[in-house]
């Protein structure tokens, strides 16, 4: 009889010790989503929080902060371009696409955070 328990290979890889608190990254994702209603003000607060907390946790959690920071800057670009394009009326469509992009990106980040793993494709400009 073997003294070790079988391991589930589908479990996320975690570092030794207690799992870190994920409240702050959750708040940042929610602030990004709320930014659609507040004109980006809460998203600005969220990115400041992400910059402050980046580098204070395990690698997988730091990747969430990096993902959130990139999400802010890319969203700023996408919404800025959409604002300019409203002058030729196509901006309303690109704005809608940017909203969908932001929601999907935040939901993917929250899902990965819930699974205690880094988000996928942190460096992508897409989803």
Automatic annotation (TrEMBL):
<dbReference type="InterPro" id="IPR019109">
    <property type="entry name" value="MamF_MmsF"/>
</dbReference>
<dbReference type="Pfam" id="PF09685">
    <property type="entry name" value="MamF_MmsF"/>
</dbReference>
<feature type="transmembrane region" description="Helical">
    <location>
        <begin position="74"/>
        <end position="104"/>
    </location>
</feature>
<keyword id="KW-1133">Transmembrane helix</keyword>
<keyword id="KW-0812">Transmembrane</keyword>
<keyword id="KW-0472">Membrane</keyword>
<feature type="transmembrane region" description="Helical">
    <location>
        <begin position="26"/>
        <end position="53"/>
    </location>
</feature>
<protein>
    <submittedName>
        <fullName>Putative membrane protein</fullName>
    </submittedName>
</protein>
